[in-house]
Amino acid sequence: MEQRDSGPMASRTVLVTGGSGGIGRATALGLARMGARLAITGRDRGRIEDAAREIRTAGGGQVDVFVADLSAQSEVRRLAGEVLQHLPSIDVLVNNVGGYWNTRHVTADGLERTFALNHLAPFLLTSLLLDRLKQSDSARVVTVSSNAHAQGRIDFDDLQGERSYSGARAYNQSKLANVLFTYELARRLAATSVTANALHPGVVSTSFGAEDPAGVQRRLVPFMRPFMKTPAQGAATSIHVASAPELERVTGRFFADRKPRRSSKASYDEAVAGRLWQVSAELVGLTTALST
Questions:
Q1: Beta strands 139-144 and 194-200: pairing type?
Q2: Which of 165, 171, 183, 268 is catalytic?
Q3: Which of 23, 43, 86, 230 is the most exposed place for a label (fewest CB within 10 A)?
Q4: Do the bridges between strand 139-144 and strand 92-95 make them parallel or antiparallel, or are there none, so unpaired?
Q5: Residue pair 105/28 in contact by the 8 Å Cβ criterion
Q6: DSSP 227
Q7: CB burial readout 34-60, b (16+ within 10 A) else e
């Protein structure tokens, strides 16, 4: 298809995970309007094809669609293979996909779903796409976390919530893992052209968590919706971190409302980050993951 050749993101290829709805779809739309070539992932082909049509209309350019359930490592690996086959370059990877489950669910790999989807999926996908990202003169890895990371703790004795499970605790842990991963990735890639940053999108009105909501969600969300951000407003920080020229060499930072912010004290613990990295690499079968 014909590709737009104007705009601040012209000639840049962006991959957004979870791009079929919510913040991911709004992020892809915004970057397409800036001239980027978009690739999006989603679990449901109908929904993601619908998103692709909207993005093509908005941006006038090519949109590649990849169908995958990123809670399964085999699907992450298949996705990475298809992406490497179809995209000659990747300039920005937006690790947007995520979820919340009030009760404990186990993936095909025997792992707790929140940790698997929210943390291990971006860890593995980034690892598998890193060589392609390094080929860009200024690539960016943008990971969508949450201010919920400030309530998180990495429980190495019960990472999978087997002994005790709470949806909120699992989610908070996974969002802290996103920030720890980002900072460790930035340290490991300091000598390369790839930057890594994390962000809080705000409290956004989407269908997030609707598959298995907590009671508090069912009771309070209808009253909170008028005060929540729209998906487009929630995507503003993702778009900014993915595209702002002034952030080309900025790495290892946390953003909210399009500005750098101090993340939680726990997120700066390099010993915890290093241990999490090693454990994550073992869980996804990449014992030398992102060693550069």
A1: parallel
A2: 171
A3: 86
A4: parallel
A5: no
A6: G
A7: bbbbbbbbbeeeeebeebbeebeebbb
Q: Are the C-beta atoms of residues 4 and 35 closer than 8 Å to each other? A: yes
CA–CA separation, 25 and 6 (whole Å): 21
For residue 228, which amino acid is it?
M
Q: What does the domain layout of the chain look like in residue ranges?
A: 13-283
pTM: 0.90
pLDDT mean values, one per 10 residues, the chain (292 residues): 64 96 93 95 96 90 94 98 98 96 96 98 98 97 96 97 95 97 98 97 55 48 49 88 97 96 98 98 82 50
CATH architecture of 13-283: 3-Layer(aba) Sandwich (3.40)
183 is catalytic: no
In three state form, how does the secondary structure of 61-97 look?
CCEEEEECCCCCHHHHHHHHHHHHHHCCCCCEEEECC
Q: Round to whole Å and give the CA distance between 263 and 255.
A: 9
Q: Which residue has the tokens 């269908």?
A: 207
